[in-house]
Amino acid sequence: MNIPISTTPPLQLPSDQDATGRTLGDEEIAFIAEAIRSGTLTATKGNFTKRLETSFAASVGAKHAYACSSGSAAVHCAIAAVDPEPGDEVITTSITDMGALTPILFHGAIPVFADVDPRTGNVTPESVAARISPRTKAIIVTHLFGNPCDMTSIMAVANKHGIPVIEDTAQAFGATHAGKPVGTWGSLGCFSLQQGKHVTTGEGGLVVTNNSDLARRTYLFINKAWGYGDPQPDHYFIALNYRPSELQSACAVGQLPKLPGVVAARVAAAERMDQLLAGTPGVSVPQRTPNSSHTFWKYSVLVDPTVIPGGPPALAKELKLANILSAPRYIQKPAFRCQVFRDQRTFGNSRWPFTLATPEAVDYSAERFPGTFEYLDRVLVLPWNERYTADHLNYLASSIYQAATKLAKGGAA
């Protein structure tokens, strides 16, 4: 431990759920007011959505970017762009938000879960390769907490089989692998503008691609497949209205220039936390993917239950006494153990599209996911945002050290 033990009363940490932990301010207010004064709040007629799309594409080095209503919508648009047949398989991760999974089912495809690295929670090239079948239509990789997957090796696997990759970059704004922005390695990249993300509009999403055909399908799917601007437009295929409002886009236009500062603040805070937590019994700081930049949507530690009895839940209970609300396990169980997958609860009592699945695709046996269960049993996700000061970091690290030391010595949780 590299700082004095804290003896201060519980400190209130900034929260990404309100103004204390967000960068929202006069810039966003001015753009939103401009949108309201224009009287045009629909993306099909206004200018802010187009402005956001142009700026975001440039910021990540993509040819095309399209705004939509949420991160889940972004994933659905990407899946629609690759256009799976009913019963086709989409390889994904066992540790992710449900909003990145249900779009696969809504599009008639079967989520096939890959195991994860027990140190990072990310899928690996080996775990992806092990799930490829003749039915595989796409691979979705999630850059968990802002830490990139090993995209060099994953793309080698995907390219060998001619399978498109969709990157779920909701938590990884500004992250890079081998010097290239995540979200631009695969065929499509999906971003979220939800409340706690690096860039926020409350709800919202973005899809990027360098492929003109995929860009066209993405754009159409956002717009009910209506060909705006076409000589003879029609509704070309089944699709939804996933457009954002001009208010969301105006807010994002104000937020986007702040992203470099947000990322820099989070990374600097994470580097300081690594130093402060050195020597804390039973606690390991986040492991970064080699040749990558981690942008820390969250700062997660691994807790060794052989050193700290009770593991992450016990440590979280102690931290709560210090007014620190952490999340043991991140998600309470692997995605495939949620009711929608376990009981195949989809459309009425039909179980569709699971009725089209092969037995291997829906084999959720625990022995197929050793990394998933080990990671969930050890991970503790700490509250995190760009507004942390040195005092906040000292308090957080000191509280973790005191709690871990107490538990490691047999203190009650």
Task: List key phrases describing it.
413 residues; seven-stranded mixed beta sheet; 13 helices; alpha/beta; four-stranded antiparallel beta sheet; 14 strands; Aspartate Aminotransferase, domain 2
Question: What would your notes on this structure say?
Answer:
It is a single chain. The chain is α/β, with parallel strands linked by helices and 413 residues long. It has a domain at 26-258: 3-Layer(aba) Sandwich (Aspartate Aminotransferase, domain 2). Helices cover 34% and strands 13% of the residues. The chain has a seven-stranded mixed sheet. It has a four-stranded antiparallel sheet with strand order 10-12-14-13. A three-stranded antiparallel sheet has the order 7-6-11, with no helix packed on it. The chain is globular and about 75 Å long. The two termini are 21 Å apart. The model has no long low-confidence stretch (mean pLDDT 96).
Order of helices and strands: HHEHEHEHEHEEEEEHHHEEEHEHHEH
DSSP E strands, number: 14
CATH homologous superfamily name of the domain at 26-258? Type I PLP-dependent aspartate aminotransferase-like (Major domain)
Question: Which ranges are low-confidence, i.e. pLDDT below 50, for 5 or more consecutive residues?
Answer: none
Instruction: Tell me the distance between the termini.
Output: 21 Å
Q: Please compute the radius of gyration using only Cα atoms.
A: 22 Å
What is the residue-mean pLDDT, rounded to a whole number? 96
CATH topology of the domain at 26-258, by name, is Aspartate Aminotransferase, domain 2
CATH architecture of the domain at 26-258: 3-Layer(aba) Sandwich
